[in-house]
Structures are given as structure tokens and as C-alpha cells.
What we know:
The protein is an alpha+beta fold. The chain has helices at 2-30, 37-67, 72-100, 116-170, 174-189, 195-210, 220-238, 263-272, 306-312, 315-326; strands at residues 218-219, 242-248, 256-257, 280-289, 292-300, 330-337, 340-347.
Amino acid sequence: MNLLxxxxxxxxxxxxxxxxxxxxxxxYFFSYNNDxxxxxxxxxxxxxxxxxxxxxxxVYFLIPRYLLTKKYWKFGLYTFYLLVFTSYEIxxxxxxxxxxxxxxDINSMPPMSKNFTFVFVLVIxxxxxxxxxxxxxxxxxxxxxxKELQNKxxxxxxxxxxxELHYLKKQIHPHFLFNTLNTIYGFALKKSEHTPEIxxxxxxxxxxxxxxxxxxxxxxxxxxxxxxxYIELEKIRFKDTLKVIFLADEIDENIQVAPMLxxxxxxxxxxxxxxxxxxxxxxxxxxxxxxxxxxxIGNTYLNHDEEEKYxxxxxxxxxxxxxxxxxxxxxxxxxxxxxxxxxxxxxSDLTKAKSNEKD
Length: 359
């Protein structure tokens, strides 16, 4: 409440100072080559209310109602009427001052004050200046509001992207977890010596998926190690029906990628792959050349339906994550070659990953 009162007080003071300055402006020009101080003071004082009325009518009525609403022809028409009215009032003021203050002694009338055109121009200059200042202030406020609105929209979009990315990162197909637990259960019933090893591998993988995934970036080498753990778990489940060819370059520990970038591809390959001649075959190739990553994964595949190939294979969520992390910096493609389905990912520059995640 106090802030509002202070703002109103400041506004009143600004207006008072403005019109005091205008009064001195009038008095200065009308006193040129004339010593009739009394007349000049009276004339300036009587001209000021007319100027104020015309100015406020323009600023608070014509401009907001017609100019800012783009009703230009009405604005032009009413502005013309206002100019005619102003001219008429100036003529009345000139004759009124001549009659009441000088008793028709036109020779004692200051030269500048008896020139209708000069007086009219002075009034219009004041109206134009204040109108320009008002429009300028309005544009600044509009730009400020638009900027604030854009910032809110961007902030909302960023929050939505962060939520979407967080959701996508947390995704893990339940079938993998259930299948692995069933495998552990089977080994436990047989009291197999491999049971602790399987539990440890699953624990490490779940730790990476559920906790390490919250980091904005992880080591590509760490991602590859967890892919290998994932494959080892699948080998135990598939037993002798799985053949995996894994080719990977020696990876520098400093190379960073978005977490869970490649594991979903591997998961999809196992989920949608088919046994061919008694085997599910998986081929994985990872190459790093400077800042560029080339990743390819293929699996034996029997269903050649186009919709299943590009939809059911599970690339939709992967594409969303790539858009959020590597927009305009990656190429993802899927293709069928004989009885194989291949997904290929190329990231041109791993250092240009977008940091729109929260630590």
C-alpha cells in the first residue's frame, strides 16, 4: 500500500514539474523583444491550461483508445478535430487577452504572442513531446512485459523438458527386471554357485540406472561397462541360445555422455530380437573418433512390418532423449538387412550436449 502511494506521489510530482517547465518555456519565448512582463505572465498562465487539456486528451484518450488499438482512421479524424478545437481556443485566447489585458492596444502586445501560427506551433510541440514520451514509455513497458512473459514461457518449457527427460531417464522395461529375477530365482532353487554373481551384476546395473542416471553427464567408458554387465545378465538368462559380438574402441575416461544413452538400444535389441536358427544374435559396435561417436547395434529379426520396425522397436523414447540432449547434433537411423535389424546412432560432437538437466 505504501509503495503504491509513493508511486502515485512520484507521478504527481513529475506532472507538476513538467507543467512548471512548460510555463517557463512559454514565458521565455513570449518575452522575446518585449518588456510587458505582466501580459506575458498572464498570457502564459492562460495558455497553460489549454495546453494541458489538449495534451491529456491526446495521451489518455485518443492514443490508448484509437492509436494503440490500431483504429488509425478514427485517430486521424479525432486528432484533426482536436487541432481545429485548439486553433479556435487559441484565437479566443488571443482576442480575450487583447481585450481584457491590453484594451485593444495591439502595439503593446508582445510580437510572439500575437502570432497565431507561433502560438499554435508551441502548443503542438508540447503536445507532441508529451505524446511521444508517453508512447515511448508504453513501448518500454510492453517490451518489459513481453520479455517477462517470454522468460516465464522459457522457464516453463525448461521445467517441462527437465521433467520429461527425468521421466525418460528413469524408464527401464519391467520385463528385463522380472526376467532377471526369475533367472535368479531359478538359480537359487538349484543352489547354483552363480547366484551371488548374478545378484551382484543386477545390483550394479540397477544402481547405475536408478541413481547414477541423475547425474547430468557420465563417463562413456562407464556406460560401456554397464552395457557389458547387462549383456552378461542376458547371457545367463538365454544360456546357450545367445550369441553376442561386441566391438568397442579403447575409450578415454574423460569422454562424457548423457546417462543411459546407449543401454536402451541394447535393451530394445534383446526385447524385440528373435531367435534365428536357435540363436538370438546381437552385434554391437562402438567407435569414438575425436569428439564423434559412432554406435551401431543389430539383432536377428523376423517381423518386417514397417510400423513395428520403426515404432515398436522402441526408438520413440530414445529419439526424445536425443532431442533433449543432442538436438541438431545427432543422426539416428534404423534399417533392415535380410533378417537383421540395425539401429545406428552418430553424435557429431559429444562436447555440445545440452545442459538442461538439474544436478
